[in-house]
Request: fold
Amino acid sequence: MKKKKNDGCRDLSLRQTAGFLKKHDNYIILSHASPDGDTLGSAYALYYGLNEIGKSACVICPDVIPEKYSYFARKTDHVSRENATVIAVDVADKKLLGALEEDFGDIVDLNIDHHVSNVRFAKNLYLDSDAAATAECIYELLSFMKVNINDITAKALYTGIVTDTGCFKYSNVTAKTHIIAAQLHEFDINAPEINRIMFDTKSRKLLELERMVLDASEFHFDGKCILLPVTAEMQEKTGCSGTELEGIAVISRSIEGVAAGITLKQTDTEEFKVSLRTYPPLDASAICKKLGGGGHKGAAGATAHGTLGEVKQTVLKAVKEAMEEVYAGVNTAE
Amino acid sequence: MKKKKNDGCRDLSLRQTAGFLKKHDNYIILSHASPDGDTLGSAYALYYGLNEIGKSACVICPDVIPEKYSYFARKTDHVSRENATVIAVDVADKKLLGALEEDFGDIVDLNIDHHVSNVRFAKNLYLDSDAAATAECIYELLSFMKVNINDITAKALYTGIVTDTGCFKYSNVTAKTHIIAAQLHEFDINAPEINRIMFDTKSRKLLELERMVLDASEFHFDGKCILLPVTAEMQEKTGCSGTELEGIAVISRSIEGVAAGITLKQTDTEEFKVSLRTYPPLDASAICKKLGGGGHKGAAGATAHGTLGEVKQTVLKAVKEAMEEVYAGVNTAE
Reply:
């Protein structure tokens, strides 16, 4: 797993990373922009852990930290940028530092991450691409260093793990993920409350938007495909935008018999963000590549230009062609 | 935890239960009616385990086993009722045997269960009320007996555990639950596929029903209460009924700011099944008691008679009174 590359980025083992953390001080810990539970949970757990061993550290997030994370995201130390040691957590690319890229993108001393796609922008990298979440890496580091874990650290770590695994639902979950969860359950983490905050809380405006989207939804190709349009008008009427809309694409792959779920989010007068979710043998990545985008086999995206009607036709055509290739005799006539 | 009661039901320890299973043969394993993943997963895992140690066993379910469980619910042995040893799994009361109650209700030799409310109807009872699922009990039994677990047994056990924990989300999850999950992950269980089947698959007709219910939903008491009516007309139009409707009540507690979610399912011309979901300090059980029903603090139910309008008024009045008791100065004026 450890690649030796002459790219100026040094791969560290768990032991070397622990050594690095013990050796330095005055840490600035960076999360990625549009923060989620893993980047924040990892950053704060690392902060609490470093505090336990007498180090000064602060967490800096490129964006405002959503209120819902306040059960572990507390005020951190003040650390001056001069002589600081900069750590990025769960940041696969310096671009993902958003507003902090200019100031910190080229001076990250240590990057702790689990993304196989990590572009190796830091001076030192601890990468465990088998970890379901960066929080797993942080847990292993703190355990290896025999750092005392307390309830708030455990809450932050548990949040990171459930965020990136959909509460233990996804294919990245391993036996180790469950073993770590078992160990975190020994602390007073109130896991049901964390899961309620992370998974079972939907705003009224999002509920309203979902209702509109479902009213406008269309089934195609013998029910194998659903198309969910999220127009600018719907977004304006409900006040839902940005990351709040992410859940809509999830709906598209939860319907029985659906192999391709298309979400079309209007981003400008004649511009739509296409999110495609597929089940094997359909390959979302291959379909989105045809549309000028890309992604993973099960989830991919692209940007399409035109009216809603035009974009629908373009995307449905690409999905239809892919279906005709993989399903013998599927009825794609409309 | 083990209560000594002179009620003709003998409490068995794990060791005694293992001894019982080794001693007898020709097992008839019963699941409860309206079967779920835990009763079926437990029944089949026990069946596969008993087969491994050379015992004959069959699984009998009072209702048709839904197709979605076919990844572990296979054809079992033929066992004659004469001289059979009857085991019930995940059955807290003989009434829950449904169509099988008459034939088997009074002749259950061993009951394996995790419900604290178990009414002790069998001759022998292995009850672990700390287990999140009966499947946890079965796993412990098979482990204690050193019975070989194979992939299909592991799939059945994992299904039982995720069913009763909402995929590790609920408050019944303990460190032990995660440790067992970790051990089951060592087998080829394809957990993401099981979770997709169990949690992320919604029929088109249920989607249609949800759309109708959301269109008819009402917010009350400053947004602290949502009311979801599921009329007979909606059920007829979509063809959704019975256990398929269970997910609706879940929606009612997932909305930000909602402390009381009311679902009114029409069951006859002037009859409604009330499902109430609440968050502390509201107590669903206390509210439903006033309506002649009962349940748990967070989830309770009752039956109400009258037109939809009348039932709404009755239930909203009870919720309003409870809110006025626990929230100082809440605006319950409508």
Notes: The longest helix of chain A spans residues 308-326. The longest strand of chain A covers residues 260-268. The radius of gyration of chain A is 22 Å.
